[in-house]
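Researcher: Here's the sequence for the chain we discussed earlier.
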Amino acid sequence: MICGHIHKAEIRHIDGILYGNSGDWVESLSALVEHPDGQLEVVYWTTLRPQPAAQDNDSANLDTPQPEQACAS
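Model: Thanks. This is the structure I predict for it:
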């Protein structure tokens, strides 16, 4: 069972059923991803987003993924 948007991302077993909740993108910046082997994982944008190096504003953040890319398969 996969649910979303109750603000607490988690994956756990409840009475023999795998329960996955994606949390929300507004407050916790969390999502569920499925790996090629079928494993589910909760990811957080703050963990996925690399910290930009100190650069001028024109070249900063060129390699920083956008939020849409964090959940792309």
